[in-house]
From TrEMBL:
<dbReference type="InterPro" id="IPR036286">
    <property type="entry name" value="LexA/Signal_pep-like_sf"/>
</dbReference>
<dbReference type="Pfam" id="PF01381">
    <property type="entry name" value="HTH_3"/>
</dbReference>
<dbReference type="InterPro" id="IPR010982">
    <property type="entry name" value="Lambda_DNA-bd_dom_sf"/>
</dbReference>
<keyword id="KW-0805">Transcription regulation</keyword>
<dbReference type="Pfam" id="PF00717">
    <property type="entry name" value="Peptidase_S24"/>
</dbReference>
<feature type="domain" description="HTH cro/C1-type">
    <location>
        <begin position="7"/>
        <end position="60"/>
    </location>
</feature>
<dbReference type="InterPro" id="IPR015927">
    <property type="entry name" value="Peptidase_S24_S26A/B/C"/>
</dbReference>
<keyword id="KW-0238">DNA-binding</keyword>
<dbReference type="GO" id="GO:0003677">
    <property type="term" value="F:DNA binding"/>
</dbReference>
<dbReference type="InterPro" id="IPR001387">
    <property type="entry name" value="Cro/C1-type_HTH"/>
</dbReference>
<protein>
    <submittedName>
        <fullName>Helix-turn-helix protein</fullName>
    </submittedName>
</protein>
<keyword id="KW-0804">Transcription</keyword>
<dbReference type="InterPro" id="IPR039418">
    <property type="entry name" value="LexA-like"/>
</dbReference>
Length: 231
C-alpha cells in the first residue's frame, strides 16, 4: 500500500530508526512497524506523521514517493509546502505602539504599486492604516478598495476588509477572495480551488458579463479572504 511504503520511505530518508520516529510521534515502535507494513494509522496519527514530515495528507496517502527521482521528489515536496504556507512567504505588516497589528488600506490608486511593494515593509508602512477592535486579533487583516463592477452588489469604490490566507489549499469554493497575481495584480473574485489537483484557481465574477479565468498557483503572490464591506 502506498501509504505504508511512504511512511517507511520518509523515515529512512530522514535517517531515523523506527524507535526514534515512534518516540517523536508518541506511539510504540510496534505500532509504527505495523503502519509501515500493512496497517492504516488512525486519522490523528496520520496528521502527526504528515506534520512531522511537513507534507500534506494528500501526498502522504496518494503519491508513491519511492518512485520519484530525487529532483522530482524535492520539487513535489517544496511545491506542496509552498502552497500550504509552510515555505517562507514574506508578509509585510505594521503594528501600533503596543505591538498590535494594524489594518493597512490599499486604495484603487495604491493597487498599481501593490504588486511590486506588497513584500516591502517600507511600502506597506506608508499605506494608510487603522484598527477595528471587533476583528480577531490572531488574524491579519487588510482593506482593499474595489475597482469596477465585476463583484456586484459590492460597488466600484467600496472598501472590503479581508483576512490573510496562508494555506492556499484551504481556499473554499464559491467564496470571495482578493488574489494578488503576477499577471493581474490585485483582483477581487469568487474562487474555485483546483490547487491540489491542477495547481490552479478558477476565478469568477459575480457579474455574468465577465468571463471566468484560471490562475496558475505559481503566479499567485498573496490571497486574502473577504470578510466584510464598508461603504
Amino acid at each position: 500500500m502506498t501509504l505504508n511504503s511512504n511512511i517507511k520511505f520518509l523515515r529512512k530518508k530522514k535517517g531515523l530508526t523506527q524507535e526514534s520516529l515512534a518516540e517523536a510521534l508518541g506511539i510504540s515502535r510496534s505500532k509504527l512497524a505495523g503502519y509501515e507494513l500493512n496497517i492504516t494509522p488512525p486519522l490523528d496519527t496520520l496528521v502527526r506523521i504528515a506534520e512531522y514530515f511537513s507534507i500534506s495528507l494528500d501526498i502522504l496517502i496518494k503519491e508513491n514517493l519511492g518512485s520519484y527521482t530525487e529532483y522530482k521528489l524535492r520539487e513535489l515536496l517544496e511545491t506542496d509546502q509552498f502552497l500550504r504556507g509552510r515555505k517562507l512567504r514574506i508578509l509585510a505588516t505594521t503594528v501600533d505602539e503596543q505591538g498590535r497589528e494594524l489594518i493597512e488600506v490599499v486604495s484603487q490608486r495604491a493597487k498599481a504599486s501593490y504588486l511590486a511593494g506588497f513584500s516591502d515593509p517600507e511600502f506597506i508602512s506608508e499605506l494608510p492604516k487603522f484598527s477595528l477592535p471587533f476583528l480577531p486579533m490572531d488574524k491579519k487583516h487588510r482593506v482593499f478598495q474595489v475597482d469596477g463592477d465585476s463583484m456586484l452588489p459590492i460597488l466600484d469604490g467600496a472598501w472590503i476588509v479581508c483576512e490573510y490566507v496562508e494555506d492556499w489549499t484551504a481556499i473554499k469554493d464559491g467564496e470571495r477572495y482578493v488574489i494578488v497575481t503576477e499577471q493581474d495584480g490585485v483582483t477581487f473574485k469568487i474562487a474555485y480551488n483546483r490547487i491540489k489537483t491542477e495547481q490552479k484557481l478558477l476565478l469568477c465574477s459575480a457579474n455574468p458579463i465577465y468571463p471566468p479565468f484560471e490562475v496558475e498557483a505559481s503566479q499567485i503572490r498573496e490571497v486574502w479572504k473577504y470578510r466584510l464591506a464598508m461603504s
